[in-house]
């Protein structure tokens, strides 16, 4: 079912705060909460932008140590990504709390079964198995752009953390030729097209994601002659482009999490270096490369810029850093919990 975004209203900040206080201080017992990965809660609504998001900051500050719990709110739908045993243990309580927020009509539960198995949970137990309505779609508006979101899609269905970085791309795209590698449902590409780009190409290996990306072109009334999506392996695409001598004014490179654990950081660094080296070779001289890592291990190691410098040497390019950013403002970081910082978004000029 596709919900009309016009029925979506902003959430009431007071009830959000109340929810978090309940989860953090009363309903849950913190000694059960292991020190694990990340947590973020994001809101998308008909009209959310930076200023609308600000009232929620106080709310998120309370939650940014609830590791293993992500709640993204798409209009009247809350999607919970669970990746810690304590989240599963308090599933019903968390659902009840979220269900009490004004305007939330449904809570979709998305357990990361592989991670939870590592935490010792047994998924053969029918208590963990939840019936899901496989074709559920919602429609939201972010930065003035409409998106269809599949609640069965990657992460929670949408990468809400890149919202501010997508907006930046929209503001610098006019008249430019843009390439969005690892485009998923077209987030950066659609922003570039709406920002007046001359031409936009998105590349991803996921067919379901690209089907939605194509629907998003239509949804936003964009000219399919100016924006298109291609299903291909990213490395293969970039190597072919190098062979053909093709280049773009702005390249966005947002790969999946290549270092899910600190143990594999070294090998992942090699993968990041190779991908970035290829991306630099197809960025026109003087053009821009927005390169990302959503691996907490990479971001927290503080070595991403060194990896990028290695990539530049491999590509025989010079790079300068124009901007260093992370996740959008509804993903706050508690200084006493640096593990909460996972996303790196670096804008480079490539010479
Ligand atoms: C972090 S997500 C990108 C999010 C996107 N930039 C956005 O703003 O919505 C990473 C994407 O990489 C894609 N992917 C994974 N491996 C790939 C490969 N070898 N070639 C192309 N795409 C790949 C996934 O399907 C996923 O859509």
UniProtKB/TrEMBL annotation:
The keyword Metal-binding does not apply. The keyword Methyltransferase applies. Keywords: Methyltransferase, S-adenosyl-L-methionine, Transferase. This is Ribosomal RNA large subunit methyltransferase I isoform X3. GO terms for biological process: methylation. GO terms for molecular function: methyltransferase activity. Residues 136-298 form the S-adenosylmethionine-dependent methyltransferase domain.
């Amino acid at each position: 079912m596709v919900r009309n975004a016009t029925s979506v209203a902003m959430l009431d900040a007071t009830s959000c705060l109340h929810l978090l206080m309940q989860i953090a201080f009363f309903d849950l017992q913190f000694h059960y909460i292991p020190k694990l990965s990340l947590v973020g809660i994001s809101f998308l609504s008909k009209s959310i932008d930076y200023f609308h998001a600000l009232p929620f900051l106080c709310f998120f500050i309370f939650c940014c140590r609830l590791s293993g719990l992500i709640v993204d709110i798409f209009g009247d739908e809350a999607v919970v990504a669970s990746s810690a045993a304590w989240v599963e243990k308090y599933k019903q309580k968390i659902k009840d709390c979220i269900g009490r927020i004004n305007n939330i009509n449904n809570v979709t539960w998305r357990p990361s079964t592989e991670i939870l198995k590592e935490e010792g949970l047994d998924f053969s137990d029918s208590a963990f198995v939840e019936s899901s309505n496989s074709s559920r779609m919602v429609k939201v508006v972010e930065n003035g752009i409409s998106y269809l979101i599949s609640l069965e899609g990657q992460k929670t269905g949408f990468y809400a953390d890149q919202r501010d970085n997508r907006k930046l791309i929209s503001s610098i795209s006019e008249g430019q030729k843009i390439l969005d590698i690892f485009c998923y449902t077209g987030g950066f590409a659609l922003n570039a097209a709406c920002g007046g780009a001359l031409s936009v190409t998105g590349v991803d290996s996921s067919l379901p994601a690209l089907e939605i990306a194509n629907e998003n072109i239509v949804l936003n009334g964009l000219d399919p002659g100016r924006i298109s999506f291609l299903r291909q392996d990213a490395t293969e695409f970039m190597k072919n482009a190098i062979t053909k001598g093709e280049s773009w004014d702005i390249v966005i490179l947002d790969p999946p999490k290549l270092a899910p654990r600190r143990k594999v950081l070294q090998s992942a660094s090699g993968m990041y270096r190779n991908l970035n080296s290829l991306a630099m070779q197809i960025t026109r001289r003087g053009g821009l490369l927005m390169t990302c890592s959503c691996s907490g291990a990479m971001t927290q190691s503080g070595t991403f810029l060194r990896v990028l410098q290695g990539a530049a040497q491999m590509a025989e390019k010079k790079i300068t850093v124009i901007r260093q950013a992370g996740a959008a403002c509804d993903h706050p970081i508690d200084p006493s919990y640096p593990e909460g910082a996972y996303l790196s978004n670096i804008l480079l000029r490539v010479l």
